[in-house]
Design a protein that fits this description.
- The protein has nine helices and twelve strands.
- By secondary structure, the chain is α/β, with parallel strands linked by helices.
- The strands form four sheets. The chain has a six-stranded parallel β-sheet with strand order 2-1-3-4-5-10, sandwiched between helices. A two-stranded parallel sheet has the order 6-9.
Length: 292
């Protein structure tokens, strides 16, 4: 198969590239976001050399979690990702030979966070950043379905890998420190291992009746405090002193505050109902007990 992957710096992209390369498929990889959507069209033409693609993966959304918490850079990065995704979807929809499927990386942060409330694949989306960003990202990919292309919005939990630290928002001058907020024990965190994310995608390829939004999470919902404790221990990061919402808005704007204060308690109902089995269901065991 010919496979196009945009956003190759993400944890999921690295996992997919390694798997599909070992399987002998031909990979066409786009590393970075072009400067504008018009450049995106030329970029994909240059990368694919006009060859038809069987599968397309649009994975730049993970970069939001690795952004600097700036009132200027974060909104601009979000706009660039949405515009780029829309341009690529239009391109592949216009091709004479169309892809079998487009996988668009979204996030469980699309849901409205209400403390203990769990979110399913069909749950209503939330308001504010980052929920509105992921809603917009999914909406620009949706029209591609009118071209008889299967589109799956992968609503991923926070991606975790034994081999590389997860993306997390960076404070100015504190690149190795995870920004912590007050009330982290009340904020739920859904996550998924890179291996389970790959297995879920392969399962979705085999089960063509599954379409639309799909929660891809381990089902092991931790508090943000518990999640950060494990990540900090595994990757030798540091933790900032707790920062309040008003200070976060002052430092990085409403988008940055929304990103750090958002939570997710997402259940992978579609996958479980279809018979998929998650192998990595304990972050503690996955990273600290079985990790190298």
């Amino acid at each position: 198969m010919n496979i196009f992957i945009s956003g190759s710096t993400s944890i999921l992209a690295a996992t997919l590239i390694e798997h599909f390369f070992r399987q002998g498929h031909v990979l066409y990889v786009e590393d970075t976001l072009p400067d504008n959507p018009l450049d995106a069209l030329q970029s994909v033409r240059n990368i694919t050399a006009g060859q038809p693609m069987d599968l397309v993966f649009l994975l730049h959304a993970e970069e939001i979690f690795a952004s600097r918490l700036s009132r200027f850079s974060l909104p601009e990065k979000a706009e660039d990702i949405v515009a780029h995704t829309e341009a690529l979807c239009r391109y592949f929809a216009s091709c004479t030979v169309k892809p079998q499927a487009i996988f668009c990386a979204s996030s469980v942060h699309i849901y409205r966070h209400r403390q203990e409330e769990k979110s399913y694949d069909s749950s209503p989306t939330g308001t504010g950043f980052p929920a509105e960003f992921f809603s917009q990202l999914e909406s620009v990919a949706a029209p591609t379905r009118q071209s008889n292309i299967r589109v799956l919005d992968l609503r991923l939990g926070r991606l975790v890998s034994r081999r590389s630290e997860p993306a997390f928002p960076r404070l100015p001058l504190r690149a190795r420190a995870i920004a912590c907020s007050f009330n982290e024990k009340a904020i739920g965190m859904s996550w998924v291992s890179s291996e389970d994310a790959l297995r879920a995608i392969l399962f979705l390829l085999e089960n063509e009746h599954i379409d639309g939004a799909v929660n891809v999470t381990s089902g092991d919902i931790l508090s943000r405090a518990e999640f950060n404790d494990i990540i900090i221990s595994r990757f030798r990061l540091r933790r900032t002193s707790p920062i309040g919402a008003k200070v976060l808005r002052l430092i990085g704007g409403k988008e940055a505050a929304g990103l750090l204060l958002s939570g997710s308690r997402a259940v992978p109902f579609k996958l479980l109902e279809a018979g998929f089995f998650f192998e990595d269901i304990s972050l503690q065991e996955y990273l600290l007990e079985k990790g190298p």
